[in-house]
Specification:
The chain is mainly β. The protein has no helices and 21 strands. A nine-stranded antiparallel sheet has the order 1-2-3-4-5-6-7-8-9, with no helix packed on it. It has strands at about 1-5, 10-15, 20-25, 30-35, 40-45, 50, 55-60, 65, 70-75, 85-90, 95-100, 105-110, 165-170, 175, 180-185, 190-195, 205-210, 215-225, 230-235, 240-245, 250-255.
């Protein structure tokens, strides 16, 4: 059965006994839209299609999806909204990618790498990550808590300008922390200081004894400055500056100047 209208180059609505329904163009019999007997549908003269199995495409096949819900977009993907609009990819509470949900972008990946960035280039203009804090002297371009690994391969370098180390003053017996970098001692009586045990080889701790005649006994594994011996006690009684570096054998190597 066919139903006609009669504008120039008009349309024909066709209903077939097979269950096929379409709106065809009279001039060349191409379908503006069609409802197929198998449950699929085509619109826009083939620019959009919905298959019976749940897959399909729109935008002239530039946005398509499969039966499992995976979407492929061939072109730009732009989301517009207001200040409360969110875009969240939620695997579970400990694996997610969120946009404008609290922070501008939040990523968490438990038991996996949350963010993997890599690049390749033949000159120094190539950057994996570029971060800028526009508030000069205020705020942070990067704030980090936990272990940080910065590793330069052979012929490469790590450049840090304006480095500030963690500093604190000690006046009583204590155990140094793995986060201690510069330690000043202002004790007025004898104290005992234990070296941190949970640090890797290469850790440096700078020290300054600010008071004389107040003895400090250090406990740990030390390479005796004057011999090849390893000692577990090392004492400082006079006022001077020194630093210690942990070696690959777990011993603290002492460097000092009077």
């Amino acid at each position: 059965m066919s139903t006609y209208d009669n504008p120039e180059n008009g349309h024909i609505i066709e209903i077939h006994k097979t269950g096929y329904i379409c709106n065809s163009r009279k001039s060349d019999s191409k379908d503006y839209w069609a409802l197929n007997a198998d449950g699929s549908a085509v619109f826009g003269m083939g620019k959009s299609k919905f298959n019976a199995d749940g897959s399909g495409y729109v935008a002239n096949n530039h946005i398509k999806w499969d039966t499992g819900g995976s979407i492929t977009i061939d072109g730009n993907f732009i989301i517009k909204g207001n200040s409360s609009s969110k875009f969240n990819v939620e695997i579970n509470g400990s694996n997610f990618f969120r946009i404008n949900d609290g922070s501008m972008v939040s990523v968490r990946g438990d038991g996996r790498t949350a963010l993997n960035v890599s690049t390749y280039g033949s000159n120094n203009s190539t950057k994996g990550i570029y971060v800028l804090c526009n508030s000069a002297g205020k705020g942070y371009a990067i704030e980090s808590y936990g272990n940080v690994l910065l590793r330069a391969r052979n012929s490469e370098k790590i450049t840090i300008n304006g480095l500030h180390v963690n500093a604190r003053n000690i006046s009583s017996s204590t155990t140094l922390l793995s986060s201690d970098d510069l330690v000043s001692f202002s004790n007025t009586g004898g104290i005992t200081v234990y070296m941190p045990s949970n640090v890797n080889a290469g850790k440096i701790i700078y020290m300054k004894k600010r008071t004389s005649r107040a003895f400090i006994t250090f406990k740990g594994k030390f390479r005796d400055p004057g011999t090849t011996n390893v000692v577990t006690d090392w004492g400082v009684g006079t006022e001077f500056s020194f630093f210690l570096i942990k070696d690959t054998d777990g011993c603290w190597v002492i460097y000092y100047c009077a």
